Prior knowledge:
It is built from 11 helices and 5 strands; from the N terminus they run E-H-E-H-H-E-E-H-H-H-E-H-H-H-H-H.
Amino acid sequence: MLEVRLPVLRQFVCDPAKYCEGKSLCCQNHDTPPGMNVIDFYRLSRKTGQPVTEIWRENGTVVPVLTQGGWIIALGLRHNPCPYLSNVPDCAVHDSRPLNCAFFPFSVFLTRRDQLPYYQRIYPCIDGAQPTGGQIRFSAKLLALFNELGEVEVKYFWQGIDPVIGEMNTNKLGSLLKTAQELAPREAPHAVASIATAWELYLSRLRIHQAAGSQGPVNLEGFFHQIVGSALYALCYREFAARLSEIEKFHLSVFAALNDRIVAIFRKYGM
Ligand code: SF4
Ligand code: SF4
């Protein structure tokens, strides 16, 4: 008898109960902290009624992002776990969630295909899934918007800052952490806890690695996100708070107009 086997792919569906034990893994995992745009702070502010600078103080961080030109810094959201994951697995700010949250896991399908096997190991919801046409169109719209937002952000926020971190060797990381540990208690208290969590994460990765008798390097990307991000947050906290406050005072109309377009895209695709 002829046996025909066709590859049967699931559509991508976010179903925490089925795929991540109801834990919303992508909202907690150290490998996927969302980089934030300034507009994301604005959207969260609209949703929660908190001023942007208060959100930055309580929930912000800095995320090192690997690009083709090397590591650069982006604004970020605490992720250990995310403060808006108040009622696991539900996001308390779902309709105003950061664009990178809405972009997951389509970002992996669209822009990080080379890392797909790695993400599939961590997130069962991605394994064997493929996004629908509507989900692909939604994420393509977001991708186009990211480019536009980048230009607006450079004009209103990043002016005069070189975001490239460059190579991070042990000496540089050591001195960065030393400065951050001195600054964090008075500048950015939650960075102290994040730095401690990063060390725990590092040690647990090492233990798992050794217990499994694994050869080769340990995957430290999550640790790098956590520890370098926390240290940079402590260092940049004051400067970035001042810049966000300027935007809040003088340029809200620009961000309100951008947000209207984002809301329209979310509505159109039911996301
Ligand atoms: S996207 Fe995947 S990992 Fe994230 S909450 Fe949904 S099922 Fe869980
Ligand atoms: S903002 Fe919402 S979707 Fe994004 S990480 Fe937090 S809980 Fe998850």
